[in-house]
Amino acid sequence: MQEMKSPHMVDWAITGRCNLSCRHCRGVPEGELPTERARSLIAEIAELKPGWVLVEGGEPLLRQDLFELLALMREKGLEVHLTTNGVLLTPRIIAALKPLGVRVAVSIDGAAEATYQSIRGIDSFGEVVAATRDLAQEGLLSAIDFTVLKRNYREIPGVFTLAASIGAPKITLIGLKPCRDYSEELLSPQEYQAAIRLTCRAAQETGVEFFFDEPYFWATVKELGLSARKPRDGAGVVISSTSACALGDYLFIESTGEVKPCSFAPLVLGNVNERPLGEIWSEMLASPFLKRLKDPESRTGYCRDCRYLADCMGCRSRTFVLTGDWFAADPACPLQPG
User: Fold this and answer.
1) Which are the contacts of 225, defined by CB distance < 8 A and separation ≥ 6?
2) How many CA atoms lie within 13 A of 292 on its CB side?
3) What is the pLDDT of residues 203-247, one digit of tens each?
4) Digit-coded pLDDT (tens) for 131-156
5) pLDDT of 3-24, one tens digit each?
6) 65-102 pLDDT, tens per residue?
7) Model-level pTM?
8) Closest Cα to residue 242, out of 308, 168, 173, 318?
9) Residue 241 CB burial class (10 angstroms; 0-12, 13-18, ≥19)
10) How many angstroms from the chain centroid is the CA of residue 246?
11) Taking the chain, what is the end-to-end CA distance rounded to the nearest angstrom?
12) Between the CA atoms of 301, 303, 304 and 307, what dihedral angle is there, to the nearest 10 degrees?
């Protein structure tokens, strides 16, 4: 019998609690799995042999048994990455994380304090930058996460300069996905082109590595003749085998136990409170709908004739939210005609 394919990663919103109310929050349902179910779920995740586990929230540092669960993940041999808004990071927390082998990404969505505050709704820019620098000095910092919005994309060069001063090994630029202020903050195709140009130039000037989490990034780089380097192997939360939309190649576990094929997809596959994770993953791999969705021939509109289609596929979750059609062309694509 052929061995079952492993997910690229498992993205787990380990708690729905959060201490902030950010403009780009996707909206996390309240709740979290009880400790015992969380422990058994970790064993199920380990059986699937994902490339890594991304622990997020909400704000994961608000979960009381977090360190117990992280220790169990280490015991199971899982590579773990924790993403945090950084507000709760203290020397004591950093010291507790160090022996657990966890790599930490901190979200900093602006190079200017005023921009950061307008997005995060809290005056903690200086404290978060200082804590991120402490993480870097302890060798725990994997990346600065920067969600690209209308209000902050012009600060991309400044964020690269900030990352270099902190000693961050990488910046992960995350294209805005469906959220409560989506239509107000989503970049136009022309603004996405500008953001990609700014990113490539800033990376060259600062030497800071980056990963631009949009399926059309490399297609745009090629089409515009820009210069960019892919992150090194082992650079953390990066799917190196493909640049295309990763929907259906990994698992997202919501704080309530719901399982989805993408963190932002309005499509529930099952719930770990009712069924084992391995069973849900196996059924997802066999899903006729998801197989069709991952087939380039299923695309419509300008995507259908794009020479970069197989390498991109467009963001399926964003496309569905904006058009109501899973198979339509991605409305945010910077390479669309006109």
Assistant:
1) none
2) 8
3) 999 999 999 999 999 999 999 999 998 876 555 555 555 678 999
4) 999 999 999 999 999 999 999 999 99
5) 789 999 999 999 999 888 777 7
6) 999 999 999 999 999 999 999 999 999 999 999 999 99
7) 0.94
8) 308
9) exposed
10) 11
11) 50
12) 150
**Measured distance CA(160)–CA(153) in Å, rounded:** 12
- State the amino acid at position 138 in one-letter form: E
